[in-house]
Amino acid sequence: VVVFDYKTGQIEDPADGLARGNRLQLPVYALAVAGDDSGGVQSYYWSTRGTGLDALAGIDVDRATREELVDRVSTIVDGIGAGVFPAFPDKPRQDGRGRETWVNCCYCAYDRVCAPARDDDWARKREDPVVVRFRGLADPPDEDGEEGEGPRAEAGR
């Protein structure tokens, strides 16, 4: 089974989004189509701006990917159930209109009403022991063991 999700904007590596739990759309679509089928499912973002194979970014939804998805979704659901799901803006970026915002906020309908210093809020909350599981998903240390790449990560150092 192959699933395509057409995108008019920039496409990113779906494996990165799965690893951080912030871009789960593609594997969720694939599993919705596959159901309990134990065979692998291929799932791709297809950029309407690209051509050829450069227009595709995909992920094989095999057993390992399914297990990773279950782990990510469990972290999110358990956090919500426990009342522990802090706003994590991620890195600064511009939205489609050139307005300064954050990676995880640019498509949110509430972006304009949230505090402008949400990066400071995350820097303050990220060391709280109750967010350790969420932080491991959303803002993990890099390969050298340094703090995550989120906003003002240096504040935690």
Explain the overall architecture.
By secondary structure, the protein is α+β, with helices and mostly antiparallel strands. 32% of the residues lie in helices and 16% in strands. The chain has five helices and five strands. The chain has a three-stranded mixed sheet. Strands 4-5 form a two-stranded antiparallel sheet. The chain starts with a strand and ends in a 19-residue tail after the last helix.
Q: How would you spell out the order of helices and strands?
A: EHHEEHEEHH
Question: How many beta-strand runs?
Answer: 5
Shape call: globular
Number of helices: 5
What is the averaged pLDDT score?
84
Q: What helical percentage do the residues reach?
A: 25-40%
Structural class comes to alpha+beta
Proportion of residues in β-strands: 15-25%
The radius of gyration over CA amounts to: 17 Å
Q: Trace the largest sheet across and list its strands.
A: 1-2-3
> Which consecutive residue ranges, at least 5 long each, have pLDDT under 50?
152-157
Terminal CA distance reads: 45 Å
Largest sheet: 3 strands, mixed
Short structural description:
This protein is α+β, with helices and mostly antiparallel strands and about 160 residues long. The chain contains five helices and five strands.
